[in-house]
Every structure is written in C-alpha cells, then in structure tokens.
Amino acid sequence: MQWRLCVAAAAVLLALHALRRLEEDVIPKPWALESLEQSGTAPEHAPEAPVPSQDLTRVPSHAELEKAKWRPPDFGQVPVLDDAIWQASLDGCAQNSTLHAFLQRLLQNQTITIQVYGGSMTYGMGCCAPYSCDRWVDCSWGAQLQSALEQLRPGRVRLEHRARRGCNLPCALPEVVLAQRGSFRAPDLIILDFGQNGWGGSPENLEEFIRVCHLFMPQTLLLIIWNKDMTNLDPSKGDIKNLQSCRALSGHYGIPLLNFQAAMEEYTRQGGNWSQLWPRVLPEEHHPPWRTHAYFTDMLAYWFNRQLGSSESSLQLAPVLRQPDDLNVDQAWIPPLYNVKLEKIQVCLFPLTSHVAREPNGSPTRSPEGRWQLYEDRRDKPGWITMEPSSDKLRFEVNFSRKARVVIQYLRSYANIGTAEVEIEGSWLWQHDGKNLQGGKGRSFRAAAEWGHRISVTQTVMLIGASLPNASWETGAVSFRLADGPKFKVISVISC
Q1: Is residue 338 part of a domain?
Q2: 24 and 47 in contact (C-beta within 8 Å)?
Q3: At a CB cut-off of 8 Å and minimum separation 6, what does 187 contact?
C-alpha cells in the first residue's frame, strides 16, 4: 500500500512540474539581451501537446531551409556536402546525454535558449558580402541555426547572440557571468567559437570559462567549435597548441568538440578546394561570406541528426540556473585539469556594479564637459570614447565588497589610440598583475591602449583591493582621463 501511495505522489509531482514548464513558456519574461528580438515574443496561446520523437525527421541543411532571417539571392547554388565531410568534424562528439536532453525538450515543444559566444566572424561581420544586409548577425551561423531548429518547432528557439567584434575568449568571460546573473533561467546550449579571435593564449582561459559555466549552469550543454586561424594557409604552432588544449579539456569534462578544420581537410582529401568552404571575398580572411556560415550550420545539423537517430523519447526537465553566494557549491565537481582556481580569475563572479556599453542602463552617457561620449565609432562596437587629451574625466560610480575587485575592459589597437589615466576612489589601495597597466600599488594607473599586433581587440584587466577597510562594503568610483594620444575607448567597468 505504501509503495502505491509513493508512486501516485511521484506522478502528481511530475504532472505539476510539467504544468509549471508550460506556464513558463506561455508567460513572456524579460529574457537577456536580444533573445526576444532574435526570435519574436512568446506565443500567447498554450503550447501544443508534446510531439513523439518519431514525428521529428531531421534538422534541415541550408538547402532545405524554408525560411531564414537573411540569405543571398544565389543561396541555391551552394552545394550540400557529403556526410563523410561532417563525420570528420566529430572530433570529440560521442553520444551525449546532455545533447539528448536538449533535443528532447525541443521535441516536447519546450522553448529552448541558445547562447552564442565568439568574435566578429561569429557575429557575422562580412557574411552578406558581396551583397548587403541591414544586420550582419541575421546571416550568421547562429541565426541560421535558430531558423533550422525552428523549422522543426516554430517559435520554440530563443537565440541570445552574445558574440562581439574584437572579443576573444577572456573578453567574453565577464559577459557570460553578467548574462546569467541577470537572467531567470539557464540556457539550454552555449556554443563557443573563438577560432578567429583567439582562445586567450593559455589553456587556463578555456578551463576558466568551463568552470564558470558549471558554477551557474551545471546542466547546460556546452559546445566547442574549433577552427584554425584562417589568416594562415596551414595551422600555426599556436593553432596546434590550442587544438590540443581544446581536445584535452573536451575529454576531461566530457564537452562536445566540433572541428571545422577537420571537415575542410576531408573536403580537400576528396578532391575539393578548401576555399569553397571558406571563400575570401573580403580582404580580411577572418570574415567569410554566407556560404561558410551555412556550412557551420550544416555541421551542427549533422551532429544533431546523429543524436536524433539514436534517441528515445523521454521527459526532460529544463537546466537549472544556480545563483550561488560563494564557490563552495562546486568543491565536489571534477578537479581542474590545469589547476584553475575560480577565486583568482580575472572576472567578478558576483558583481555589485556593472557599466557595460552594450547595455548602459543607469550608466553615464557623457563626461561633465562632454569630451567623453557613449556611441559606436564602428558598427556594433559601442563604447565611451574621447578624441583628445583634456582634464575632463569620465566617472563611473561603483560598489565594493570586502573582497574588492574592479574589472575594466578597453580597446587595444595598433594605430590612432592613446593612453588613459585610471583612478579609483575609495578606501583601498589597488594592485594588478603588471601586464597591461602601469603603476604600482596605489589608486592611480596608466592604461596604454596601443600595441604592435595588427588587430583591434577588447583588453580585460582586473585590479584587486589590497588594503581592506573595516566596513563590509563601500561605494567608490572609477574615472578615466585621456593623458596622451588621439583616442581612448572604455568598453565596460564592473566591480565586486
């Protein structure tokens, strides 16, 4: 008798959870940046009953896609590639239970959320060439993936496109923290694509990202897309080292790895020319046209379809969004491969104040004299910018905890850029690692934005409070003044 009562109680709890999931899908909520803009508002009617998995045939290729946000007039001339090419891309993609759960939620008409992180190529810069489009992001592989999945379940895929021009993997780490701290539920899938903007130069950078994702989203599927730096015809020593690190971390944590470089090599082995997969329409080799983005989507579709072919329908619950107060929740998880310690990474895991140019809610839009202004000096690249040295200071009010940190992001470039004085108001003395800021322990530093690399990127630096007051928290400010050179651009200031 007791056994029957337990079974009945479990069935009731399962039904209540399913009802709550349906209610969440129907009621619109303030999702993170661009989610509703990318996919439209949530439907006002109740979702249909779950559809059995046999009704789902396959994720379409680019040639089978019925609707897309943008595609060129000659899209029908882009050939569909042989499955053997995409099979070669399955570098670290065995059958994956988390992918199974992700696809089953889509089959059951649950709304899924995909977050994409990467640089300008991932964002879609240049992908409309030689044609034109209003928004590069609309022809990116992320937007095409959303359209392909929504062909199976219309209106059930939310895309949060968080790729940024000039952003490498360390630059994206504060972004992923802010995205989850300001959200109401965890994304179902996070995709990392930093082959062109860089993985940060150290395997620790990727492991930090992996462990931060698990801290906040332990059931979210994380996927790595690998490709070599396309400025080189052959993989460089850095490419080889980065691929080794990606494979090592993929195996250590059980994270899927898709290898577009391996697909290009297989295409060449079959007698094709790799430039058909990555044409160089623009002078910048990092920014391929729509065709390459379509093939990235086809690679993902092939991986999804392999999983669908072996999946059985079962009820899958949404991933949990965790809001921890400290780092103790992950003490029993997989030990780090490269001895990464989250308490020492260059990011505020529990931010108290954030001033971000892409989401400047409550942040200043100009300095007192107007020499600093918040605007886009290049398409989709906003920042607080000044164009001449002066005494005018750009000031951000911030809050500090007892373990005070300040994370600053600014533009690094090879020309037409200068040096800014950075001052921090408050009771602390501050110190840094000495790599990107000038000045010892204190409250005033210099940030030189010019460097010798022929690329413009977002530089991330962290300052650590070295002298703590008796109070548990305190207000302060971070200010910038252009000291030398023609320009300086602040992208974000975050404190904790």
Answers
A1: no
A2: no
A3: 113, 114, 115, 160, 217, 220, 319
